[in-house]
Batch of 2 targets.
Target 1
Amino acid sequence: MNEILKSVAPPANPKIPEFNPGDAVSVHVKIVEGDRERIQEFKGIVLTVNKRGVNPSFKVRRIASNGIGVERTFLTHSPRIDKVVVEKRSKVRRARLYYLRERTGKRARLKEKFGIDVTKQDVAKQDEAEQS
């Protein structure tokens, strides 16, 4: 059964790095408007990551204008995702960060992981993926 699922699964997008809940990411999404196609950036904090099965997904939350929270779920293997950039890694002790929905302002902050240079690691991985 596992072989059948692997044969049906879409290929992994090399422009999506490894990330965890609590990381601040910027997701570049392709948007089609009439006959034009443009890339829209969605910056926020990763609430959940679902890596199981054929359709892995992740949920990103950001605060829009007037303090309204916006959550968006992205399919990891979607052709609409141009790339994902990890901007900051945070230290969290849960896999699902739904408690951030009720928090605003300073209470919604997460502790940053230090000692990990996010930009150099992710840029190197993206360059390797693009070259191959």
Target 2
Amino acid sequence: MSSTRSLMLASGIGLGVAALSSGSFAAEPRWCAWLGDGSASCGFTTIEQCRDTIRGLGGSCVPLAPVGHRQPTPASLDAARKKQNAKPSSR
């Protein structure tokens, strides 16, 4: 391989790595924050970002629903929590 060709290959790889590490390819949002007032924000790429947003305000972080599926609502989250926390009755 000629030195010019090697230099071009190395430069291309270096530019590719720099572009990836600089954040020019934004990560897709994967988390939604449902706040206690019923509002929602679904622009978080990590659960940590979501948790930082709801900290002190109350609310829940849920994964973003896949395309074609309904995003849960605060009411459905509350109902699921109540159902999960309900104790079975003794017979």
